[in-house]
Amino acid sequence: AAAVEHTFVVSQVNMTHLCKEMAFTVVNGQLPGPTIEVTEGDSVTVHVVNKSPYNLTIHWHGVYQLLNCWNDGVPMITQRPILPNHNFTYRFDVAGQEGTLWWHAHDAFLRGTVHGALIIRPRHGAASYPFPKPHREIPVIIGEWWEKDLPQVDRNMTNGYFDDYSSGSTINGKLGDLFNCSGVLEDGYVLDVEPGKTYLLRIINAALFSEYFLKIAGHKFTVVASDANYLTPYTTDVIVIAPGETLDALVVADAPPAGRYYMAAQPIQAPPPDTQTPEYATRATVQYSSSSSSKNSSRDAVVMPEMPHQHDTIRSFYFRGNLTGARHRHRHVPARADERLFVTLGLGSVCRHGGASCKRGGNLQESIVVANVNNVSFHIPAATATPILEAHYYRRRRAGAGAGTGNEHELADRPPRAYNYTDQTLTPFGPEEMRLEPTSRAVVARRFRHGATVDVVFQSTAMLQGDSNPMHLHGHDVFLLAQGIGNYDAARDEAKYNLVNPPRKNTVLVPNLGWAAVRFVADNPGAWLMHCHFEFHLSMGMAAVFIVEDGPTMDTSLPPPPEDFLDGRP
Ligand code: C2O
């Protein structure tokens, strides 16, 4: 195993797009940031030098971080944020997983521009892929272009103001030629291919706000992995990917090589009436190297794929329903759960100025709309407080196993009130205005015994105006056992669980007005954030911390913090 070392200088650089020059916070001057390439078993060291004006952390999305929660990179959960002009070094091993993951800033919307791919190659080389060895491997990162100060957007959302949208979508940092300003077309990403060869696209949805359709005119995808877990190969002409997810797909360059073909990404939006969000597709070009005429051919000669309807959320549901885990690589799914959690995902309201003066149904001036799980909205501890992991670690040392952090609110295993979750007359922004439930705000956590097998059913509610929810768990992969539309019903739906070859994921899309059931083994001691990977839902509080207790032995217990862990503190 090798040691892979990087230095990430985070700073603001000026970029001009759509006729506007703006400062963006990026890593090493690049957007997307540098790709980290490792072989399974390698150890990674990343020195983060924060020359930006913001507090930040970097999270290694999907990396197990076994017994290494200290390096998970979540502000105030696993560490204090890295202050401007401070440095921090992350150290982790990449073991027991291969495929595509990514890294990103974890807070204040900064991940919109602070992100990059993390590629894990198999120990025994490409010959050990459970699919034909590709000619080349190419990261395809879907993102958004924001002509905004992202930390300001975050503050707006946290305070209940929702007028910020991105100006467009990007593929590998480029807007593409659907965008122009004063007649000047934006550059698009160009993927050069050779006829007959096979390419492995490592597709990452790094966007803050949208799930996407991705299509290439004249070509098909064979999806072979997701979230660094192999899948049964599935051939499709459209990929559907939610924020936080990765999908590895093979594309054979088998179209007539004289042509050029657009690769288009289009956001999927909640169905009407939520139509205010502008629709911004982006496109890249697939170009055959043998095509000598390609440089001269007019833009009209490029073939555009026919995209699904922008509100076709059912297409997303079926796409996911077709994915299964690759059986021969499959870890065994525990036959039954020790613990069950039923978690509703919704919106609620809290009083803007505290106190009891804002009554239910009060207007938006008085109350703030927050997102919640089981009607509790996650409150990130103040930067002056002790991070949850540190509090857990030291309190536990003093008080013995089972001690909490002292200020957490235990996540109930059900919402406080049962109702017909998917009844659309409960929609908060309908004609009757603001039927939001009063919500409490807390550091909401749930503790699990080491080694417990846990079932979580995520239930989307009509409170969300039809948004789906890509739910992401840190430090563990989950088996996606089943998904459905409508209200989850254990008596009926447990029979649908796939216990044979479910996909293993770190991010699971809970369908709009539906549910998803997952199972995981809580075998990684530490404090792990579980949250919606739509950035606005995260900043509004759709999150909880899963605290996994130590196991009985040293090598199932969280070690002390690394020696230089407190570097970078004020
Ligand atoms: Cu990719 Cu907690 O995030």
Label this structure with key terms.
570 residues; mainly beta; Immunoglobulin-like; seven-stranded mixed β-sheet; 5 helices; 36 strands; 7% helix; globular; binds CU-O-CU linkage
Compact overview of the structure:
By secondary structure, the protein is mainly beta. Helix content is 7%, strand content 39%.
Under CATH, the topology of the largest domain can be stated as Immunoglobulin-like
Secondary structure: helix percent: under 10%
- Number of distinct beta strands: 36
What is the CA–CA distance across the termini?
A: 35 Å
Superfamily (CATH H level) name of the largest domain: Cupredoxins -  blue copper proteins
Count of individual domains? 3
Can you identify the CATH class of the largest domain?
A: Mainly Beta
% residues in beta strands? 35-45%
Q: Rough shape?
A: globular
- Which ligands appear in the coordinates? CU-O-CU linkage
Q: Work out the helix count.
A: 5
Whole-number radius of gyration?
23 Å
User: Stretches where pLDDT falls below 50 for ≥5 residues?
Assistant: 273-277
Whole-number mean pLDDT: 89
Biggest sheet architecture: 7 strands, mixed
